[in-house]
Design brief:
By secondary structure, the protein is mostly beta strands. The protein contains one helix and four strands, in the order ββββα. A four-stranded antiparallel β-sheet has the order 1-2-3-4, with helices on one face.
Length: 76
């Protein structure tokens, strides 16, 4: 994971011409919580380039933050 209150985006190696996969993917850390970030390169009607973003909380971080391992939970 990245340092707290930092993030990074990288070119998506799985992106192919014409598909809807993000152009850039990466991780973001905000106050100790991990997020996955995706970005698509776009162009406005006026011809300006911009990035459209999607951010989702990382599933693996939720398990860490709960402080409990799945194997240690009581089954009832």
């Amino acid at each position: 994971m990245t340092k707290e209150n930092r993030g990074a985006l990288f070119n998506n190696g799985y992106k192919e011409d014409g598909d809807k996969r993000p152009d850039l993917v990466g991780e973001l850390n905000v106050e100790g919580r991990g997020y996955r970030i995706a970005a698509w390169k776009n162009q406005s009607k006026k011809g300006l380039s911009y990035l459209s973003l999607s951010i989702e909380e990382s599933e693996d971080v939720e398990t860490e933050s709960s402080g409990e391992d799945e194997s240690s939970k009581v089954p009832f």
